[in-house]
Request: fold
Amino acid sequence: MKRKFNYPNVTNVAQILLDRNYGDIEHILKNRLKTAPQFIDKIELEAELKGHNGCVNCLEWSTNGRILASASDDFHVMLWDPFTHKQILDLATPHEGNIFSVKFLPKRNDSIVLTGAGDCKLYVFDINRGNDLPIRKCQCHGQRIKRLATTPKLINLFWSAAEDGKVLQHDMRTAHTCKANDANVLINLKNHINQIPEVKCIAINPHRPEQMAIGANDCYARIYDRRMLSLMKFSTTGEFKPNESGADNVPQEGCVQYYCPGHLSRNKGTVYSIYNQKAITYLTFSPDGTELLVNMASEQIYLYDLNCPREPKFLELPKFTEPINGTNGTTVRNGERVKHKLPPEVEHMKKEGNANLEKEKYLQAIQQYTLAIRKAQKKDCSMLYLNRATALMKRNWFGDVYAAVRDCHQALRLDPHYVKAHFRLARALLKLGQLQDASECLAELIKRFPSYAKNHGVLMLDKDIEAELEKQRQRQRERIQEPDADHYSVNELAWRAGALDYQDRFVGHLNTKTDIKEANYFGDANYIVAGSDDGNFFIWDRDSGMISSIYQADELIVNCVQPHPYECLLATSGIDHEVRLWSPQPFEKVPVKHRVDVVDGTVNENQNRMQSDPFDSFVPDQAMCRAS
Reply:
């Protein structure tokens, strides 16, 4: 007899988990369960899938979620039943290098499996044939293949991205010979970059398959419109030529859009040390195709809004007038700002943030200000934004100063007469290395508020800015920096100059030791999940950007985090040889063992390690399994 389910509020999580044994839950309820915070809060280790004899570098769910594929340094691909925790197939591939990517070709009954590896080879297998022999082979790439991509919208095509700077397009309807006159090069970064460009990751928009995103060994996420690209032959693929638009395959205008955090798109190497080279280790589109999530090495996780993109903002002061009354609950009397009272709950959060700021507990302070801003709903929030900017600048993790610049702009938009916001913005611009903007911002402050011209803080800031400007002029006289034109094509320079800014960012994990570390949407895109070099995976609340929970999932490093397409189920892997499955568990039966309680300490340690010399705590090669 089929059991009846009735959970309108989805609060009795343990009971629902037990009732899963009696049959399928209605589709609408499954969707609600996937997003329910009660489920996310009760995640624990469900099972370990053992069988590999090496680091597990990639995971992939079948379209229907009934099969999980894993691939490893042991050159094997294993298929698992995630619900019985049983191995379905052990495929010994001909690879001679670590397998970095495994995919199912869509709408082929989960029988066609693709692999790409560190031996620069790509194989296609039909698992229904009953043997380990591939049905297709490609060894066109000159360096390690890092990622493969497919889309259910185009069932015969797939793409490979490799460290030779190329993206190849493969068509299962045509034979492949690996000859120089084969026209299957879709993108070649070497046409535009005179260095050693490496493509690290690739993704296809699930709703707009013409949009292809790639990440490379720099800070720019690129989204191409494939309809505006022509396939090139290996024999005619050009190399970089300075002062030209890009050899051979001249791109059409509008064929690509770059995305980059503003502080990195403007940075010329003066902000970070040589140890913190940027690269994009993973990127993915949101389930609805309107966002791009990017995990950046030696940096944070960034989310880009594709429908409402943001321009980088450094100095953009609002129009200044001389009103009797200010905006957003601010009254101006005799030139002085008189603030109206905040709602009691918001005032309490602000005081908690201030107390933490005084104690140098910057993470807690930023969280309290964030909660207060969300609660206040932009009513008289200018002070909250400025306080958060102050905490961000004092904390000074990667990207914090630029986030402070954005908060200062928001405070000034709400209250153009906020003198402290003008001053804080000028100081943040100085710290960010935007010297001319800082000078102009301070000059505008003095122009708008003449009584502050002789203020000690203003005079000292002006002196600091002038000192840095003189250092900059000295460097220019000595010609220390080489011109960009020697390294990039005209088009590349234009694309980088037009890079769009991020919408949100997620901070706390550590991504410095491997270049395959993932970040994904989780819980129907209400959460963000990512692996970390500390052996944990992190879960953030999507809307607030705050850490929801941290779980220990590997002895050394978690690289792969792949949410199930339909259930509240997460597969993880890393340096350990096991694949681990995580799902909501009734705590009265499954004790909490892997959830990390010391969130602040974990996050602080990660960020400190990110900004230090990585060789001070380098993991030995045998432990790293050559995963980077």
